[in-house]
TrEMBL record:
It is an enzyme of class 3 (hydrolase). One of its GO terms (molecular function) is phosphoribosyl 1,2-cyclic phosphate phosphodiesterase activity. The keyword Hydrolase applies. This is Putative phosphoribosyl 1,2-cyclic phosphate phosphodiesterase.
Length: 346
């Protein structure tokens, strides 16, 4: 059941990747003939073109799809500290600065695009600290203009830090945006985003985001005629986060433990999108790749895409490893990447 609150406003108005080989990079100086610069520019062009092709730019408008607008940790990839390290020891972050490189990752978030009788519905799951940058990169590229709703998984900054940026939509595109949020996380928003919850405190003339808050519990709810079923998981000791099932897609972005009562909700999952922070050991709040793979073997989806990766997860190296698992175990699992589009039947 969804409890509609509206806005409080005056009327109107693995372990094989645990230790990557450290490489010391010295500054690159292009030779006088400029050939190296040309080669690097050409390589970047090929990477960008390949990424656009892989992303499925030609999907028909009537096709449901999941668009990954962010697949990284709270701090994002590359890390500034890695780029400013004079020893240049972080291979993944150095790769991530290259145009089109799939190691470049912003806060974990997806858009669920779902055809309706009146057109196409765009449902955003989480709007974190880097939401503006993700939207700037992918919304124009994929023709996403309106937002029919934002669904929140939890109230950490990488999931709600971009709510203020929704003002661009409610000031210039649409009158308001519905927000679907668990009750405990709404209580957090009353403190972190008090001026969005109670707009009576806003100075006259200031144009903040116009948001309609809807409290959700563990019961299924519908957005734009699409059913969402909350998937309660633990995101650290005593901290509850929600994943969501829509159609046969199961999305669990932040998880350290899956309660037994949640597994029945994952039956017959065709596409599992699962948290996998690092290649070796799980943290107190996130699965690492080995634990995530254990869950994949237990849940048995048709296909798995991992998300929420930190800078120890090299896209190409980890995917090469996962391809070997497909050959030996039949597991269809890969890392996702920012900008990936996946057609779905919803």
């Amino acid at each position: 059941m969804v409890q509609f609150l509206g806005t409080l406003r005056p009327s109107p108005s693995l372990s094989s990747f645990a230790t990557y080989k450290r490489q010391v990079y010295s500054p690159i100086t292009a030779p006088r003939n400029g050939f190296l610069s040309f080669r690097r520019m050409f390589k970047a062009y090929i990477q960008s073109s390949s990424a656009a092709t892989d992303a499925g730019l030609g999907l028909p408008s009537e096709q449901s799809e999941v668009i990954f607008i962010g697949t990284g940790t709270s701090e994002g990839i590359p890390r500034v500290s890695c780029l400013t390290n004079p020893l240049k020891t972080c291979e993944v972050c150095l790769k991530a600065v290259e145009p089109g490189n799939k190691n470049r990752r912003l806060n974990t978030s997806i858009v669920v695009r779902h055809p309706t009788s009146s057109g196409s519905s765009n449902i955003l799951i989480d709007a974190g600290k880097f939401f503006y940058h993700s939207a700037l990169r992918w919304f124009p590229a994929y023709g996403i203009r309106t937002l029919d709703a934002v669904i929140i998984t939890h109230s950490h900054a990488d999931a709600i830090g971009g709510l203020d940026d929704l003002r661009d939509w409610t000031n210039n595109v649409q009158s308001s945006i519905p927000i679907y949020v668990p009750e405990r996380d709404f209580e957090v928003m009353k403190k972190t985003h008090y001026y969005l919850v109670d707009t009576s405190v806003v100075q006259p003339g200031a144009a903040v985001s116009e948001l309609q808050f809807n409290i959700i519990h563990e019961d299924p709810f519908s957005v734009s005629d699409l059913k969402f079923t909350p998937l309660p998981v633990w995101h650290g000791h005593g901290y509850r986060s929600f994943g969501y099932r829509f159609g046969n897609v199961c999305y669990i972005s932040d998880v350290s433990e899956i309660p037994e009562e949640t597994y029945p909700l994952l039956r017959d999952c065709e596409l599992l999108i699962m948290d996998a922070l690092r290649p070796d050991r799980s943290s107190a709040t996130h699965f690492a790749l080995p634990r995530a793979l254990e869950e994949v073997r237990k849940i048995r989806p048709k296909r798995t895409l991992f998300t929420g990766m930190m800078h120890l997860m090299d896209h190409e190296k980890v995917n090469d490893y996962l391809m070997k698992l497909k050959e030996t175990e039949g597991l269809d699992a890969q890392l996702s990447y920012d900008g990936l589009r996946v057609p779905t039947a919803l």
